[in-house]
Structure formats: C-alpha cells, structure tokens
Amino acid sequence: MTTTAAPPPALRTPRRKRRTRIDDRGWLFVAPFAIVFALVFLAPLVYSIYLSLFREQLIGGNAFVGLENYVAAFQDEKFWDGLIRVSIFLVVQVPIMLVLALGAALAIDSARLHASNFYRIVIFLPYAVPAVVAVLMWGYIYGDQFGLAGNVNQLLGSEVLQPFIPQWMLLSIGNIVTWQFVGYNMLIFYSSLKTIPGELYEAASIDGAGAWRTIFSIKIPAVRGAVVIATIFSIIGSFQLFNEPNILKPLAPNTISTFFTPNMYAYNLSFAGQQYNYAATIAIIMGLITAIIAYVVQLRGSRQEAR
Length: 307
Description:
The protein is mainly alpha-helical. Helices cover 69% and strands 3% of the residues.
C-alpha cells in the first residue's frame, strides 16, 4: 500500500482571499433623503455656527470674533430672564400635562368607560386645531375687557380674572399648551397600552389583582418608554416656546416683552434688530441646552427601563 506524501509548504498553492464586493446601488436609495437632510438640516446648522463666530462692526464690517458672542450671551440678563422663564414653564407645565394625558389614556383603555372612542376624539381634537387659531381663541377668552374673563369680572363686579397680568401670564400660556397637547400625548400613551399582551391581564386576574394593582404593576411600567418619548418631546417644545407668547403679545404688550422666551429674543434680534450673528448665537446655545437635557432624560429613562 503506497501513500502519497503531502507536498512541502513551499509548494502549496496559496488560497485566494475572497474579495467582498460592495454594492453601491444602496446609495441611490439613500441619496434623496441625504440630499434633503443636508440642505434642510445640516446646511442651516453649519451656517448658524458660522454666523455665531462673527460680529457686525461699524469699522471693519463683519469681523471674526471667535467665542465672544457666546461669552456675551451668558452675560446677557435678557437671555437669562427668558431661559429661567421657560425653565419654570418646563418644570411646572410638563408634569401636569403628562399626568393628565396618562390619566386620560388609562381611563380610555379601561373597559369600564363607556363611549371611549368618543372621549378619545374629544380629547385629541384640540391638537387638530391650528396653533395660531387656538392661541387667538384663548386670547379672546382671556380678554379682561372684551372676552370671557371680562364677562366674569362684570358679573362678579371685581377684577378677579386678569390672565394678562405678569403674575398670571405664564400660567395662562401653560393652560393653552396643556389644552393643545394633552390629546397628543394621550394618543402616545394609549397606543403603548394597546401593545400590552392580554396574557398579562389574565395572569393578574388569576392572581387576584384589582384594577388599581393592574394599573401600577402592569400598565404604568409598560408605558415607561412612551413616557420618556413624550417627556423628550415636551422638553423640546418648552425650550422652543414661541407661538403662544408671540401671538398674545399684541394683547398684553406690557407683560410680554421681546425677550419673554429665548426664541422670541433670537427672533427679535434677527428681524427687528438686524443682529443676525448674536441671534444665531442664542439659537445655538438653546439647541445645545435642549439636546443635553433631552439626552439626560433619555439616558435615565433607558436605565430605568433596563432594570
């Protein structure tokens, strides 16, 4: 019996490595979105950062100043006044709105509520009203000389309701925003509740869990991710507060200033004061603050959900 000896290592034919071919056709499908994203989002962002590094001067024109605009912004009392105001608005209004939305979602999801579809449409309906129309409608209601508040004051014979005074203005705006967005957040929570498997309810019923036990042990933990998403959206909306105070300003010119919120401040700096560089600086700072807070909320929510 003869055996064939294996060839020495030097005579072995080396194996050819397979070259993976990259298919570039996928970029054709991504290209429309990438182009629109670059033109609509990236280009304005880069241009805003570019503007924030310059300053229009009487002598020399538009000159490069580096981070001087950012230093000036953090020393600007008007900027801090608006930032503190929207921060208070965020801390007070957002929890109230989310609690009301969660309560409405739990009530509609409950089998004990009759005509739940009707209530769902009614609660969501204010979100379908255009923002400008909603603010104008509430502005008429708030009018202490011509609106519902004025009629109540005439009926009582005293100036009890004055929504446009400085002490009430932020609360009045918070009421408008809450009225508009409770239905929107309710729909997010309600959609999350509908994804809960029915087996969990059956197991809870077998274990003798009541309605409240089911809510706190099954439903609320199940919508934790939706609560995080709604909170992030609400944080972004609070720091971008602009429409409501800007539309109500003609009705309360002595209460709502041009720097009532940072967005209003940047808007008036740009279009009324022609200070485009400083307005871009305010916008960039607010964008960074919003992104950092939203990221912290998302990170904290992800950790709690992982537990």
